[in-house]
From TrEMBL:
Its main location: nucleus. The keyword tRNA processing applies. GO terms for biological process: mRNA processing; mRNA pseudouridine synthesis; tRNA pseudouridine synthesis. It catalyses: uridine(38/39/40) in tRNA = pseudouridine(38/39/40) in tRNA; a uridine in tRNA = a pseudouridine in tRNA; a uridine in mRNA = a pseudouridine in mRNA. Pseudouridylate synthase that catalyzes pseudouridylation of tRNAs and mRNAs. Acts on positions 27/28 in the anticodon stem and also positions 34 and 36 in the anticodon of an intron containing tRNA. Also catalyzes pseudouridylation of mRNAs: mediates pseudouridylation of mRNAs with the consensus sequence 5'-UGUAG-3'. Acts as a regulator of pre-mRNA splicing by mediating pseudouridylation of pre-mRNAs at locations associated with alternatively spliced regions. Pseudouridylation of pre-mRNAs near splice sites directly regulates mRNA splicing and mRNA 3'-end processing. Belongs to the tRNA pseudouridine synthase TruA family. This is Pseudouridylate synthase 1 homolog. The active site is at 117 (nucleophile). Its EC number is 5.4.99.12. It comes from Cloeon dipterum. It comes from the Eukaryota. One of its GO terms (molecular function) is tRNA pseudouridine(38-40) synthase activity. One of its GO terms (cellular component) is nucleus. Residues 206-310 form the Pseudouridine synthase I TruA alpha/beta domain.
């Protein structure tokens, strides 16, 4: 009786196992039948030209420049016209990247050295990414870029290179008419700055050099925030020059990194000192804990001039494989682009748009005092930030 029960159990299990095997067999047959295609379809596919394997790409530093007028900055911004949008469109059209890679730039290891904001231009911006290095890449890229955005050159870099992380310093320029330095109420386009006035301006700019707490020169930063401290290597003004009946002066500031609005606020405060609206000691007071009401100069004249990679150049620039990121061969093209696209935008904005003239009359309205008793600054988007 026991033997009979055991046989029944074994038989039942065999039947169940058999059913399972047959089910799998029929499922595989059905799948194979569904996957079969007509012979004509197979032959047609064989006749189609094969897509060539994508060219092997290398990590590069790409030197580019742009006039920021009409753009909402360098970095991609949803539904806004940006420099990066135009760059990725050009890469897609030139078949340097796929649509997916352009939609997700991190797959290309893409990184910008500095994030210029609305209407801010760049003479020498650096981006790092993986790109093919065949001859003619720059020409192909430029053929798909608008004329106000140019690629100047590229160089092979180490696989771990990051255009932002490896950057030692950045140099910006700020260009404006010298009548902004005239005494209050005497602003006129015929004004020409005296050597004494220019020297006072130069000395005021030097007060920014060194490591200082610039919490008063940006927004959303407090005195105790460690990131409010920034190191300014050099801040100087060049010789004035004339253009279209106006005298202009260019300031150049080199620093490790900059915060939103920092450069424009530094220039504005220096102008206020030279005009006699405030005493020079206001600069030192701005480094203290009190939040002051400081003006902000127009964004029109702000330009990213250069990105510096001194440590990288010393370590890898002469290893026999990589080049130094100094771009001497591209300098002529950069200057030509600056003279044709960047500076004319500034001159037009000053001559016809009266950018500095309209702003300078508002300068005496600031208290340069404790900001707790003053209306909060309007948050503007144009400026610069390397964070």
């Amino acid at each position: 009786m026991v033997c009979s029960s055991a046989s029944t159990v074994v038989l039942s299990r065999s039947i169940l196992l058999g059913r399972h095997v047959w089910r799998r067999f029929f499922a595989m047959e059905a799948a194979e039948t569904n996957n079969k295609r007509p012979l004509e379809e197979v032959e047609d596919e064989a006749k189609r030209p094969r897509v060539e394997a994508r060219v092997r790409r290398k990590k590069v530093a790409l030197l580019m420049g742009y006039s920021g007028q009409g753009y909402f900055g360098m970095q991609r911004n949803h539904q806004m016209r940006t420099i990066e949008d135009e760059l990725f469109k050009a890469m897609l059209k030139a078949d340097f990247a796929s649509q997916e890679e352009c939609d997700f730039p991190h797959t290309l290891f893409f990184q910008r050295a500095a994030r210029t904001d609305k209407n801010v231009s760049a003479a020498k911006q650096i981006v790092s990414l993986k790109l093919c290095t065949d001859p003619g890449v720059i020409e192909q890229l430029n053929s798909h870029l608008p004329p106000e955005i140019r690629a100047f050159g590229l160089k092979r870099v180490t696989k771990n290179f990051n255009s932002k992380g490896n950057c030692d310093a950045r140099t910006y320029s700020y260009t404006f008419p010298t009548f902004a330095l005239s005494p209050v109420g005497q602003e006129d386009e015929s004004f020409r700055a005296t050597p004494e006035l220019l020297e006072k301006f130069a000395q005021t700019l030097k007060m920014y050099e060194g490591t200082k707490n610039f919490h008063n020169f940006t927004c959303k930063k407090t005195f105790v925030d460690p990131s409010s401290k920034r190191y300014i290597v050099k801040f100087e003004c060049l010789k004035p020059y004339e253009k279209d009946g106006l005298e202009y002066i260019e300031c150049q500031v080199k620093g490790q990194s900059f915060m939103m609005h920092q450069i424009r606020k530094m220039v504005a405060l220096a102008i206020a000192v030279v005009k006699g609206i405030v005493e020079p000691d206001i600069v030192s007071k701005a480094y203290e804990s009190n939040r002051l009401d400081l003006p902000m100069a127009p964004g029109l004249g702000l330009v990213l001039q250069e990105v510096h990679y001194d440590r990288y150049n010393r370590k890898f620039g002469k290893d026999g494989v990589h080049e130094t990121l100094t771009w001497e061969a591209e300098e002529e093209a950069v200057q030509k682009f600056k003279e044709e696209f960047i500076l004319p935008t500034i001159y037009e904005g000053e001559k016809n748009g009266k950018s500095m003239m309209n702003w300078i009359v508002t300068l005496p309205l600031h208290t340069f005092d404790d900001k707790r008793n003053v209306k909060k600054d309007e948050e503007e988007e144009d400026g610069v930030s390397d964070e």
